[in-house]
Amino acid sequence: MDPFLNQVLCQRYKIRARLSQKPGRRTFVATDLQTDTTVIVKLLLFDVDFTWETLRLFERESAALQSLDHPAIPQYLDFVDIETDLGKGFLLVQTYIEAKSLQDWIMTGRTFSEEDLHYIAQEALNILDYLHDRKPVVIHRDIKPSNLLLTERTGNNPGQLYLVDFGGIQAPQQGSTITIVGTYGYMPLEQFGGRAVPASDLYSLGATLIYLATGLHPANLPQKDMRLQFADQVRLSPEFVHWLEWLTEPDIAKRPQTAAIARERFNQSPTQPVDGLHPLRVPPPQNSAIQLSQTQEHFNIQVPSKKFKLEFLLPAVISSRLTQTFGAFGNILAGVLLILLVVTGLIWPALIILLLIYFHMNKRSKRHAIYSITFEKSIQGTLISLTEIHGNRERVLFKQSLTHMTAGPDKIPQYKIKLRSEGPFHTIRINGSYQEIRWLCDELDSWAQIPITYESYNEEV
């Protein structure tokens, strides 16, 4: 039991509960007996754990809170000398916020949708933008789930977000600091060397959002080239995944340099390619069965049948097959056949039989087929043609105008990209890993310059 529980400090602050304890410091919930309000009391004692660095950070937190005025940051109330049975020290008093930390919410089983994460990201960026816009710049240096508080959900609002614990803040001189402050897993590489800049806080925010999405501490996630590998463990749109990867780039030069820049990119429409949102061209995934080739006029994708699906309307397919067989009379024959089926009342049984015949005829040939998707720039726009390749045989299925492209998650860990076109063959669907689909999106963005709409798991897949 903490010796300060139920004690009244400075004849005013009655200690009710201890929130945390660090060497030389304690944080309590207390009641201000003069105002009958709940407050937060931070106590620094000159005991065996005391260091001059701790005192310097404690005084800096007090001075910073006096200068900050933001609704999502605790307000400074008091700073006094104190003498206790355990020694002398200082008392810092600030406003109490009735909210749980994001860490506590996760521990109680709460999950966060992508919309919730968007909201938390926006609110956190607003706070960091305020801090980073100060003169001199204020860097928190310890953004993590336990230092971000969120109130109860009200309706569609996930709650009000707050940033607390300014005990490690630094107002840098000449863009750097010399004190190592932060939490392992949430602090970027440069902080291990005693350097912190606004982009360091953004890395920590990105790591925090990844924790909320995965439920895993960032230190427990796999890494590749110092980058957190989390995409295959979340149900997030590729665009949001890209943005989080941008925030958590290990190379500080490849991260957004301020919260304002990060927020600007975040608010960009996901259908608009943005320089910086994809800071690096995505390399081809290793051992991918999908192959790309391109010239200035043509862009070709070759996809094995197991990663390919052609979505269509059955009557349109029947008409297309008849046209391939009978030439110009195919459409007329299809119309006559449809009228006869309606008149005789046999349309549904006939369609089911035709569907079975269609799949039976195509099952064997598609099993080992390769599908070649070619994009071609023309005056009318971008044309897309589909060719089925089986051994030495090639069959052109259609050539139509490309109207729309979408990409998004499929069943974990699969992602998809859909190429929508005019005509009876409505949609080409390519399935693959996150890396494969991101690679395709990146290359198509660069070549076709056609907006790609990013879907989420809340949409039909």
Automatic annotation (TrEMBL):
SMART domains: S_TKc. GO terms for molecular function: ATP binding; protein serine/threonine kinase activity. InterPro entries: Kinase-like_dom_sf, Prot_kinase_dom, Ser/Thr_kinase_AS. Residues 13-281 form the Protein kinase domain. The chain crosses the membrane at residues 332-359. The keyword Protease does not apply. The keyword Kinase applies. PROSITE patterns: PROTEIN_KINASE_DOM (PS50011), PROTEIN_KINASE_ST (PS00108). Keywords: ATP-binding, Kinase, Membrane, Nucleotide-binding, Serine/threonine-protein kinase, Transferase, Transmembrane, Transmembrane helix. PANTHER family: SERINE/THREONINE PROTEIN KINASE, SERINE_THREONINE-PROTEIN KINASE-LIKE PROTEIN E. This is Serine/threonine protein kinase. It comes from Adonisia turfae CCMR0082.
